[in-house]
Write a structure and sequence with these properties.
heterodimer, A: Vanadium-containing Chloroperoxidase, domain 2, 0% strand, B: mainly beta, 12-stranded antiparallel barrel, two-stranded antiparallel sheet, 1 helix
Chain lengths: 515, 298
């Protein structure tokens, strides 16, 4: 009787508790990022060093009509109408884009990367079809936005944004046409207005540059990108921030710059990155240097390695000879004491992976369906720049320094991976909790990407340098905890990434920004 | 995959009924001051699954296996009010590929079953259940995870008619299941074709409906059943991607259940087979249980 009462009590307590905990609210809260007045408008940014443009005047922009002209006054009247009253949807668009043009377009790029980051499925005959850029929405979709692909897409995006904004700043201060609300104080603005001249619109510049790059990188997403582009431009009218000719000039400038940036992309060697005929020679070369067991795909059916010739793609911040010098020394011989120690560490984790190790492995996994490690670090950088209230052009500079460093890291890491062609721990019976990437083990891509990113961000945000480095270290460890990399893959990757990052830092110091 | 999990939950909850043994989906009640404890072992496996609507195999998984052991006491508070508890320990494995199996204590479930109406052989029963995760397992390493790390509340209405001479019965029920958000180790994820910048994941609510036809005698019971268990919302597994807790899983299954309990000790068994689904594995499941009944009546 007593026992039964006790059970009843416990039972009802648990039932009651679960009901209480189960409040019906299933709302998901995501961090809100709102518009701000930048700490500096960076009025000298028109002189900053660009990546692809040789000078801001590489692209042309006609002089605007004067604010006193009838044409401008007509635009102003139109703007007044459009910004006077906003629907709920229009207000939301204003708030969304008000966070920042560079911020939002990078976020959009990461989302596209995540959506396209799934390896193709095998056909019935056991072969893997190659994604086709001419037919991007067929199965498999083009692109497979894996880490090298995404690193490159983000690098071109951020370079196009940066070069376009440097050029825009040049023209802004050449033409000095004030913002509509400074011309006519009765314009109702929904966002903070700075002293920055409004022609060309920096938002339209970023939108057009981003649109051009992303359309090339994600050709199946043209309708999606069209809608974003239109909404972004409209949001500037609804917010009372730009007249139509500010936007048209920005579109023109951004498109011109992005076209030049994409011309580099067309000849950077990416089209040969998936040249699978090269692997036989790579394997022979690795064996001739003493490798006793080569990397082999652990998938069934066997899948060809991811972009084996990505290591030959054109770097941003150093030349090909430097890339070879940056390549880490050879990994331990298979079966050596050092190799055995590293493999034993993984075997021990596989027997007793702690929940904290699993958490770290999962947090940094950034595998299929994610925006990949480059996307992860771009997000951190964009948030840091947002929190530091950077101007559009300074945020673009931050992300371009990081974006180019990440692509450089990807290229160097892939060069190393296919130079050494080193087997994965899974070839010695170790399982994984994060999913096994389909390319050689040495060195760790996560470690290389993360170290490069952490040192670049540490130089831009010195008071957060330790935090970023600690995160890079954790990202690197995560691959050991996930049991897909030997410890030496990770330490070598970290060192190499750090060196790669130093070239971006050097560039940043010499880009005339004084930052 | 997800199926493994959802199915398991169902298997666990549904299946295991003690002799008198009753479950959250039948009209059988323990008498006042009776407790029946069931110890159950479950084995569920699939080698094909529905990736969205595409039925496929995956050679990097081979056969996916979910096993569990569970303790399930059913307590007679009165002849018309029963409480059923269950606590499973679950482990997963695959016959191929590199994915490491997971294991752990899953979720504690509590069911309150009330016979609201009894008229002759007919009864109408109201059942409320809740569950809370007990283990700190990883919820989104699917299909290997042992659970989804969400709290649930289920409301169920069950009608049953039993012909007393033959023991022939027909039971039908329908339920609505609320599921809380889950938290994952990542701070961003893709679902519904967009990136969510948070670690909170919306796990869809569910409904289920089932019919059972069987014979219940003093010492034995045999039954065939069909059940539909589905999410009300959710997204689909993308082409060649892994499942995710936001997936809209749908399972149509059929099976058999039987029980023999001559005295205090008895056994039960259940076999289930998924005939159709969405975003789940086509599993075949077996459960075997040992029942022990305790009477506190003096």
């Amino acid at each position: 009787m007593k026992m039964y009462n006790r059970i009843l009590l416990i039972g009802s307590l648990i039932a009651g508790l679960s009901m209480a905990l189960a409040s019906c609210d299933k709302t998901i809260t995501e961090p809100l990022r709102v518009a701000y007045t930048p700490v500096s408008v960076d009025e000298k940014a028109g002189t900053w060093k660009t990546y692809v443009l040789t000078s801001p005047a590489d692209v042309t922009l006609t002089a605007p009509s004067a604010t006193s002209s009838a044409a401008y006054q007509a635009e102003l009247a139109d703007l007044k109408t459009k910004s006077a009253t906003l629907s709920q949807e229009q207000q939301e668009a204003v708030v969304y884009w008000g966070t920042g043009a560079v911020y939002r377009w990078n976020e959009i790029a990461r989302e596209l990367a995540a959506r396209y980051n799934v390896p193709p499925a095998a056909n019935a005959d056991g072969r893997y079809p190659i994604p086709d850029a001419a037919n991007p929405l067929a199965d498999p979709k083009f692109p497979f936005a894996n880490p090298p692909y995404t690193a490159r897409a983000l690098a071109y995006l951020t370079v196009a944004q940066y070069d376009a904004l440097v050029s825009a700043w040049n023209y802004k201060y050449q033409y000095k046409r004030a913002a509509p609300s400074k011309v006519d104080a009765s314009i109702r603005v929904a966002l903070p207005a700075s002293a920055l001249p409004a022609y060309p619109s920096e938002d339209a510049v970023v939108a057009a540059a981003s649109y051009t790059v992303l359309k090339a990188m994600f050709p199946g997403e043209v309708p999606f990108l069209d809608a974003k582009l239109a909404e972004h431009q409209n949001s500037r009218l609804w917010a009372g921030m730009n007249v139509a000719s500010d936007l048209a000039a920005g579109m023109d400038l951004g498109s011109q710059v992005a076209a030049k940036v994409m011309a580099r992309a067309k000849t950077d060697g990416m089209s040969a990155a998936n040249n699978q005929t090269l692997t036989a020679g790579m394997i022979d070369a690795a064996k001739s240097r003493g490798l006793t067991e080569i990397w082999a795909s652990q998938e069934t059916p066997v899948r060809a390695p991811m972009l084996p010739n990505y290591g030959a793609v054109l770097n941003w911040n150093f030349d090909a000879a430097t890339k070879v010098k940056l390549r880490p020394v050879a990994p331990p011989a298979i079966g050596s004491a050092e190799f055995t120690t590293a493999l034993d560490e993984l075997k021990a984790i596989s027997k007793n992976q702690t929940r904290e190790q699993a958490r770290i492995a999962n947090y940094w996994s950034d595998g299929a369906g994610s925006y990949t490690p480059p996307g992860h670090w771009m997000r951190k950088a964009a948030n840091a720049a947002n929190e530091a209230r950077y101007s559009e052009v300074r945020m673009a500079r931050t992300l371009a320094l990081l974006g180019t460093a990440l692509m450089d890291a990807g290229i160097c890491c892939w060069d190393t991976k296919f130079f050494y062609y080193y087997p994965r721990p899974q070839q010695y019976g170790v399982k994984t909790t994060v999913g096994l990437p389909n390319f050689p083990s040495y060195t760790s891509g996560h470690s290389t990407f993360s170290a490069a990113a952490a040192v670049v961000l540490g130089s831009i945000f010195p008071d957060r340098a330790d935090e970023f480095w600690q995160q890079a270290q954790e990202a690197s460890d995560s691959r050991v905890y996930g049991m897909i990399h030997y410890r030496f893959d990770c330490t070598a990757g970290l060192t190499c990434g750090k060196n790669i990052g130093s070239y971006a830092i050097e560039r940043g110091k010499a880009d005339r920004s004084g930052l | 995959m997800k199926k493994g999990i959802r199915y398991l939950i169902f298997a666990v909850v549904i299946l295991s009924l003690p002799a008198k043994a009753q479950m959250p989906h039948d009209a059988i009640y323990m008498g006042k001051k009776q407790i029946c404890v069931a110890g159950m072992y479950g084995y569920s496996s699939w080698n094909q699954y529905w990736e969205n609507t595409l039925k496929r195999e995956n050679l990097n998984i081979g056969t996916h296996i979910t096993q569990s052991v569970m303790l399930m006491p059913a307590i007679g508070i009165s002849n018309r009010v029963n409480v059923i508890l269950s606590m499973p320990y679950v482990w997963t494995s695959t016959s191929a590929g590199n994915l490491m199996g997971q294991h752990g204590i899953q979720d504690l479930s509590v069911w309150l079953k009330v016979k609201a109406v009894q008229a002759g052989g007919f009864s109408l029963n109201a059942i409320v259940g809740g569950s809370i995760p007990l283990g700190n397992y990883v919820p989104n390493f699917l299909p290997m995870s042992v659970g989804l790390q969400c709290r649930t509340v289920t409301g169920r209405l069950l009608a049953s008619y039993r012909e007393s001479k033959t023991g022939l019965y027909l039971t039908a029920h329908g339920s609505y299941g609320w599921r809380s958000n889950s938290k994952i180790d990542q701070d961003a994820y893709l679902a519904n074709d967009r990136v969510y910048n948070t670690n909170q994941v919306q796990v869809p609510n569910t409904y289920d409906a089932a019919v059972r036809l069987g014979v219940l005698r003093r010492v034995w019971q045999t039954e065939v059943w069909a059940e539909q268990a589905s999410c009300l919302t959710g997204d689909n597994i993308r082409r060649n991607d892994m499942p995710f807790p936001t997936n809209n899983t749908q399972i149509t299954s059929v099976g058999w259940y039987g029980k023999v309990q001559p005295h205090n000790i008895g056994v039960n068994a259940r076999v289930g087979y998924v005939v159709d689904g969405l975003n789940v594995g086509q599993s075949t499941s077996y459960t075997l249980g040992l029942l022990y009944q305790i009477n506190f009546k003096k």
